[in-house]
Every structure is written in C-alpha cells, then in structure tokens.
Write a structure and sequence with these properties.
Number of strands: 23
Helix content: 25-40%
CATH architecture of the largest domain: 2-Layer Sandwich
Structural class: alpha+beta
Shape: globular
CATH topology of the largest domain: Chloramphenicol Acetyltransferase
Amino acid sequence: MPTTITMPQLGETVTEGTVAQWLKKPGDSVEKYEAFVEVSTDKVNAEVPSPVTGVIRELIVKEGETVPTGAPIAIIDDVGAEAIPAPTGSGSPSEQVAAATAAEANHQASDEPVPGGNVGLGGPVFTAPTNGAASNGASAVTAPGGLRVSPAVRRLAREHQIDLARVRGSGDHGRITANDILAAAKAGPSAGVAATISADNAEYVAPAPAPPATPRTAAPSAPTTAKPSYAGAQPGELIPLTQARKIIAQRMVESKHTAPHAWTMTEVDVTSVWKWRTREKDAFEKAYGVKLTLLPFFIRAVVESLAAFPLMNASFTEEGIRVHRDVNVGIAIAADGNLIVPVIRHTDQLSIKGIALAAGELIDKARRGRLGADDLAGGTFTVNNTGANGSVLSAPILVPGQTGIVTTEAVVKRPVVRDDDSIVVRSMMNVCLSLDHRVVDGAVASGFLSDLRKRLEAMGPTGSL
C-alpha cells in the first residue's frame, strides 16, 4: 500500500523545510529507517529516514523547493515486510536477505531509540549544516576496526563463516548489509575467513590470516575529480552553493538589510582573569575532559551585564520591542566551512563551570555534526570568539532577531600607562559590539560595554568556578 511522506518538523519553532537532496529516485527500493532525503532548514540539515520498507513511487517536491511542515513530499509503495525468524543459512539468498532485513528493522524499532528522538518520521539524524552527510547513529554495533553491523547481519555472517573485517559495507554510511554478506559468501573462501562476534556483547575476535590470494591485475580505474567544496576551495574553481551556504547568505543579507547596524569597541585589561583561568585550566580539563578557555569567563560577565542592561537582550518587532525573559547566549562556531550559532539556554543560571561544560558540549557536537534543531533555536544574544584566530578587531553581523553580538578579540600583552604615569605590562583584549540601532541607542550600548569591561577587570586572579 502507498505511504505518503510529509515534510517533518525539525524543531519546535521550525515551520518549513527545503528538500536539499533526494538520496533515492523513483523506482529505487528503500529499507525502513534508511535515509532517502536530506532536508534543510534555517537551523540544521537532517537526513530523513523512511518509515517503511518499499519502493519510491513519486517524488512530489523538487530539490531546492521549500514547503511547509506536514506537506507531502514523496510517496513510497510499502512492500509490507514482516518480521520472520533469523536466518539459518538453509534458505535461498533472497529469503535470507529478507529475514536479515526484517530482523534488523525490528531490532532497531523495538530495542534501541532512533537517533534524533521521535521527531518527524521516526527521528531523522540531525546535523549542523555541512557540505557532506553526517554520520548515522543507527542501532548497528560498531566493532573494532569501525565495522557497522546489526545483530541480524552478524548472525548471517556466522552462518556463512564470513570475516566481517573483510567485507566492505554498501549500506548507508558504510553499513554492512545482508546483501554484502551473501555476496562475500558467493565469492568463496578467498573473500575471508571466519570471525567470531558475540551476539550478546559484540566482542570481536581477530580472524586467522587468510591464505594468499592469486595475484590479479586490477582493471584501471577511471580518474576521479574531486568536487569543488567550500572547505577545500582551490584557485579557479566554481564552488556550487550548498543549501547551508544559501541559508547563511540569506540570513546575513536579511540582517544587514533589516537591522541598522551600529558598532562600538572597548579595550579590557584581562590580566587578573587570565591568571585565574591559567591556574584552573589543567585541573579543570583533567576533571571534566573539557578545555577551560577565556570564553566561559567572558560569557558569565556578559549575562551579568545583560541583567543590568535588559534592552540588550531584546528583539525588535512590529508590535514593539520585546525584552526577553530568558537569557540564551549563542556562541558562533565555524564548522566544516559553515557558520553556526548553537545556544546555551538559561545561561544566566549557570556558573562559569556550567557555562564551560555547556559550551564544550555544543562545540564538540558542532564539530561532529551532531547538533539538533533545538540546539540552534531560541538565542537572544550572541558571543563570537574571533580572537581565537588572532583577530584584534571585528565588526560582526547580527543574528536576525537579536539586538547585540559581542566579540572576544585576541589577548595581547602590551605596555599600559597607569594613572600614576607608571608603565606596566598587562594582558589586554579588545571587545567589539555590533547592535541593532532600532532597539538601543549609543548610551545604552556604550553603558553595556562599559559595564562588561568593569566586570571582566574585576574577575580573578582568585575565585570559584
């Protein structure tokens, strides 16, 4: 029977999605939980899994087309695969593949959660917008050596005495499928020797060395040309726009055309807080596995200044200026050639340690392509650590809907003249602020920045995280 697939809602505030890429075409078969389309929003990219096993009948929405959540995007003819007993090796190859596929789907559906939770169609795998596909966190066990196998496929491999370490997976993200096992079995003993993988704990026992294969002359392969990409740009290339890059461009143009940007800067003596951070960083990393940078100290000072200047934590709307009750600080991160701003929610309720751990988790998820839509939603103010790359002065573009974005520039030691005309060497940092002039004027913005400077200079050199 046909199943109509609709545009999933990838996050609470998301109302539409764009079909970035179809991973299947009409007539292609698709397994339950297999990704068949990549959807983009202004928050994330997500590979959407099929809710059924079947054949693609129709792709209703074209690549690059944006439709509301809940709108039909494709029709799949459901083959109605049912769970059947685990393969014994005595059935026909097609029966064994069907059994393994059904068992694997049942294992995923009944025993382990689908990555991304119950969002959309069984839970797409969320990724931050990137040029490539994100890794699939499916329920397959990853054995030593990076093997991705389900319990059903492991059983099939044991029945045919196939060494999984010698099987190249043809499934999504290198996953080893039942067809791969049967193809290896058909190839004969030279394809590999027996491997032991416990069905209970996925313990892997290394196989004995295989007999030397008969030398053969490999057929020459056609030369491959790397597709131009944003992250690996080369002179003379025309780099196609990814959906993520289109969205970034849209949002930046929208911000500059909508909000009248103003800019201001102050310099801050961070000598004391730098000494505090230096004293704590080794013990902190050892205890929590997260590097302690200046960023969480800075964010803590920012949220305290936002409490003193609540108009900086506001948004301009046609109805009026909405001053936000929550303080949700976004941190700008460059990941895989894209700019993303995950959000630390209720930042004002966190200590420096809490901010450091929350920021560390978001940065790690961003670099692994594991950010979800909710990680990127709800920001009310943004901090950008441009100084990490040695920048000393920046004029950042506002995140649409926010009143301010502040940067931490590089910490530089330089001579400073004090009030008594003495000259001392201090650790100095520029702090730059871009603001929406519709919401705040210079008095509020400069007052906020001055307050932030005083709080940073009062931090350390001792204290509690």
